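Note to self: user wants both folds in one dump. Writing first protein now.
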Amino acid sequence: MEARVQGCVTCHGQQGQGTANQYFPRIAGKPAAYLHRQLIAFRDLDRRYAPMNYLVAYLTDDYLREVAEYFSKQHPPFNPPQPATVPANVLERGRTLVQNGDGSKQIPACIACHGASLTGMEPGIPGLVGLRPNYIAAQLTRWRTGERRAAAPDCMHRIATRLTESDIQGVSAWLGSLPAPDRPQPEKPNASRMPMACGSQS
């Protein structure tokens, strides 16, 4: 398996820890079902990033599942958090959205689905802690524009369309500034706690 994933570790790090100062995200320790779903999306061109599309273009579902399970079991140290560079009011708005949401805009708190420690939830919701701000902002923008999609009901698209540009910058900066969690594993499934129906947990 270590030989199989050499194409992955070139960008994502030897154990999937992500790069410290660039765009490539941490994939280590994320739920296997989430990673498998993303690999299939890249293979089937439902999610577009040319190097990833090329890398997995001819791989089978079973092969991709083994890769996903491999990285889900990796738990390397987290890269150091990235100090926030946005204005204080923008950062505070980001913290509020992550921890409490915004009921007036029907935006649930990130922790409601991604876990109290933001380490994700089995089987299909990824952790957010350990991701770089520029990556988070780019993905929220892709969710908002529909460039990135998930199984219906696509809860992330609905949430992202309610975020302003400033909201996205605040959320991304606050998440990127978080220290490593004490327990990096995703939470157990808890669909009853989730604030809306979400295809990612089906």
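First done. Writing the second protein, which came from a different request thread.
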Amino acid sequence: MVHVLPISPEPRSPFTYGVMRLSNDVTSLVGGNRQKNARKGDHYSVDFNMPPMEPNDARAWRKLMSASDTVLMRMPQPGFAIGNPGSPQVNGSTQLGTTLTLKGMTPGYVIREGQFFSIITLGRRWLYAADADATANSSGIISIPLEVMIRTNHQNNDVVEVLDPKIEGFPEVAEDAFTIREDGYI
């Protein structure tokens, strides 16, 4: 079951995100060149703090403590004007590698380097970010270079969330995350 986290209050600084690398380096036993062994499975993670909350607000965030279920939260992109991307969808199934082709974009729309977007495949969200700027052609088709490899077999017409990308995954919560302070805030 997916638990949707509230949009308010928003996480506060520091909010960090990064790539969890499953790739590794391969080095020759006799001292040859080092090679990067890219693997399908590199993915994003976020680490954030919440402001002190009143108990009623904090209860909704307790979903983070469900170790067996995934949680879904907005991926913030502060200071970024998304614009009107259209109604993007995956353009063709069985795409592999580090380039993803979408359709249904507003012609001329530019996905910016570092811009996040999520894809809904079989009810689960998959988060990606552009590795370079990409522009939709006059037919609304765009090929986006990705920071990480495509991680699953997205289906033709899967919905792509450019306006409000989300990250889904298993949470890890600090032991003292839900401490009740002397003033009653959590």
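Dump finished. Worth passing along: The chain is about 5% helix and 40% strand.
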